[in-house]
Specification:
alpha/beta; Rna Polymerase Sigma Factor, Chain: A; 16 helices; binds nicotinamide-adenine-dinucleotide; binds magnesium ion
């Protein structure tokens, strides 16, 4: 038996994080849980620490540190707090793979630390690639680090590419469920509520990505994520709406042949593959039954109604820090929508406004991303207060 794989889960209390823990405990001879982290949910983090007994835990919100420390003082578990600690724990020699299951821009800095420390990355945190795809992919290349996708569409593409060696991709199709408002007009979207937007038809996920799925921003972010993961041009990436979420995405090769990866919608499969590649470990996940899905359907995504998807293509072509600005605006706008402060349609309006307002720095360094993220957040907040 080879040495067990040391895993750090950044964001262990979230939707991806909790499912990753289920995967890890199912294979005690294969994985060794080293690190778990959370932002604010200290109670669940304590519960996870006592149950799964990692080497270290980190709470990034410093206000929760005392509670965490008090709860674990008598255990052989290291306890840390703050953003810097998040960057340090991933560098531990016992960690082989870092699963980035935290949400938003906060993933950027710890991912850079992990790559610098030559850890494999299982990437769920798509925002990191959206914000700084060029920087991250160049750094990974320089350090000889592999980035394994966790996002189901990108995992599907990755699985389709296995065994294809150097066969070029002609194009890819990312499938989209269409979210709860598939087929809606702009007029209908102007009347939707937060409650409706939070009800995703096929997936149970964190609040931010659930809203992103309803606005199709999620698919836009995934288009940008795919560009960086698979080194594609924007015209090589297409989106197709597939309401059943069974075909997880497709690759078309230069001979015209297409490969798709299919299965029931279950993120555990994609998480597990990112952690065990190239092996496929036996699971008892429910199996697909054709008779439950007598027809799989496909339709065009409406980029005129769901403007965020169109905007994602635009910022991809703008390059530089445009996608970073879009991501920041979107994070602030979605947070405001989740607090019932703005309407559903205001999210894409704010995103568009901020992308137009912001300077686009063409060959950005890390500090430029930090500055643009901050400035874009401020402009979004200002605009929200003037609405
Ligand atoms: P979630 O909201 O359920 O969980 C987020 C986790 O990140 C929690 O553990 C939280 O404590 C932590 N976190 C939040 N803010 C943080 C901060 N500022 N600093 C440090 N940690 C912070 O989110 P999720 O649905 O699990 O999504 C996580 C990531 O995975 C996102 O980037 C999302 O786009 C991506 N993703 C999720 C799914 C899914 O099915 N949920 C699918 C594909 C991709
Ligand atoms: Mg996805």
């Amino acid at each position: 038996m080879n040495k067990k794989k040391g895993i750090a889960i950044l964001g262990s209390t979230g939707s991806i994080g909790t499912q990753a823990l289920e995967v890890i405990v199912a294979y005690p001879d294969y994985f060794d849980l080293q690190v778990i982290t959370a932002h604010k949910n200290v109670d669940l983090l304590i519960e996870q620490a006592l149950k799964f007994r990692p080497n270290s835990v980190v709470i990034s919100d410093e206000n929760q540190y005392k509670k965490l420390k008090d709860a674990l003082w008598n255990e052989e578990i290291h306890v840390y707090c703050g953003e810097d600690a998040l960057c340090q724990v991933v560098e531990s020699t016992e960690v082989d793979t870092v699963l980035t299951a935290l949400v938003g821009y906060a993933g950027l800095r710890p991912t850079i630390s992990a790559i610098n420390a030559k850890k494999s990355i299982a990437l769920a945190n798509k925002e990191t690639l959206v914000v700084a795809g060029a920087l991250i992919t160049e750094l990974a290349k320089e350090r000889g680090v592999n980035i394994y996708p966790v996002d189901s569409e990108h995992s599907a593409i990755f699985q389709c590419l296995t065994g294809e060696f150097h066969n070029p991709i002609e194009k890819i199709y990312l499938t989209a469920s269409g979210g709860p408002f598939r087929g809606y007009s702009v007029d209908q979207l102007s009347k939707v509520s937060l409650e409706q937007a939070l009800k995703h038809p096929n997936w149970s996920m964190g609040a931010k990505i659930t809203i992103d799925s309803a606005t199709l921003m999620n698919k836009g972010l995934e288009v940008i994520e795919a560009k960086w993961l698979f080194d594609l041009k924007s015209e090589q990436i297409d989106v197709i709406v597939h309401p059943q979420s069974i075909v997880h995405s497709l690759v078309q090769f230069e001979d015209g042949s297409m490969k798709a990866q299919m299965g029931l919608p279950d993120m555990k499969l994609a998480i597990q593959y990112a952690l065990t590649y190239p092996a496929r470990l036996k699971t008892n996940f429910p199996r697909f039954n054709f008779m439950d899905y007598p027809s799989l359907t496909f339709e065009q995504a409406d980029r005129k109604v769901f403007k965020n998807l169109d905007l994602a293509y635009r910022v991809m072509d703008m390059q530089g820090t445009a996608a970073c600005a879009l991501n920041a605006a979107n994070e602030v706008a979605v947070a405001a929508f989740l607090e019932n402060k703005i309407s559903f349609l205001a999210i894409s309006e704010l995103n568009e406004h901020v992308v137009e307002e912001m300077t686009n720095i063409i060959s950005p360094k890390y500090d430029d991303f930090v500055a643009i993220d901050l400035a874009a957040r401020e402009i979004t907040l200002q605009k929200i207060s003037s609405l």
